[in-house]
Amino acid sequence: MELREKMLAVIADVNSEVVEREELIDMIAIALLTRKNLFILGEPGQAKSYVINAFRSRITGARQFERLLSKQTDEEQLFGRVDLSSLLPGSVPQSVLEEDETYTQQRLNLRMLMDGMGSRKDTPEVWERLRTDTGKLESYRSALAALYRSEPAVNTTGKIPEADIVFCDEIFKCNDGVLNSLLTAFNERKYTNEGRTYPIPTISFFAASNEIPNFNDPQEKILAALYDRLELKVVTENIEDRENRLRMLKHKQSGQCGHIGATITLDELVAMHQEVAAIPVPESINELADDILCELRKSGVAVSDRKYLGFSPIAQAKAWLMGHTQVERTDLLALKNYLWHQPGDRETVAKTLQRMCVNPMQDKVNDIRAMALEAQEEYETARGNQSKANAVNKALIKLRGELLRLYAMQQKLAAAVQSDGEKDLVDALLADMELISRRAHEAANFTYAPLEQLAALQ
């Protein structure tokens, strides 16, 4: 089975356990495929934690970490505590001992000697060998202690610095002491304690909350940076459809929840990263993404340059899931859960993406037609206010120049059509522009010529 088919099987498997959570499940997959972080906003009881746990439980071999945050949560609960043995003179941090192959082998040899002593344990030869091996082990341990003297170590076993997938519930309940460490972990995949920096292997951080902070409140404004580090965002709602509610109720009452039918390994997920990153992004898609950025900013949706410059992995992941050989326009619809910052922006982002990605030709045609009609209105106003022929002629010349500019834009659209429907849209636009030109020329008693001929004369 291909890697893509395996991921789709996991997505379908998780979807079979819940209802009306397709968007969230798709975003979990995209987050894992792009090593991005995901935030889920929703009221309690909307299966946010359940869906995340159901998905990550299907990634075998991945080390998991989960914690419900509160104001009492401290760094040690998330990142590990200082190994006290590393602070004692002559002691060696446990992490150093565990990672040193020579020490581990010598300790194994001593253990095998002791286990095999049996009835020979009182013989001088056995005791002599025992003293020799013990001396070697202690001498080597002393050497390690000298090398790692005064180097405090943190025991990170089972904590975030050793987790492949992390889930932090009630993320905004964290205290100020934990905040900076989480920021560095989310953004740089690093953790620093006692002057030592630990790399964090985490593929994705998942976070959930039933509310977002009031960033206008000085006390909560500090959480804005943490919110910004959660690049993907999904809002969940209560189950709307009655049949879906009843189906979910029956499924829960049957006791069949939690059955795992499809899995992927951690190594397979890493291989998926490579396939996703190899999906080409055509220049036309980059241009469309820039058009979307400009449109959203005009609509009052704040999208930073950093946000815009990081869009392509999400589109690549969506294209990979859809089986596309390169990113297509409709793959940008996945940006619905990437481009919004405040929940109130979601509708604007969704409508803009739908309009510009599903049928962008209609949008561009409408823009050019609106400019042509505006030019026509200006011409008619000028002609109505002017009695002299030369003034009317100037107004017609201005209109003709604008129509020729719009004609050049229409010709670019005509060269880019990809379907009969798009061709019909572009042809209808040209017909409307020709009608405006003909009526203007007739009103000014000038001979009408098609825009194509006028363009050729320039």
TrEMBL record:
PANTHER family named among the record's database cross-references: ATPASE RAVA
InterPro entries assigned to the protein according to its UniProt record, in alphabetical order: MoxR, P-loop_NTPase, RavA-like_AAA_lid, RavA_ATPases
Protein name (database record): MoxR-like ATPase
Pfam families: AAA_lid_8 (PF17868), bpMoxR (PF20030)
Gene3D superfamilies per the UniProt record, alphabetical: P-loop containing nucleotide triphosphate hydrolases
Organism this protein belongs to: Intestinimonas butyriciproducens
Domain ATPase RavA-like AAA lid positions: 296-352
Domain named MoxR: residues: 6-92, 150-243
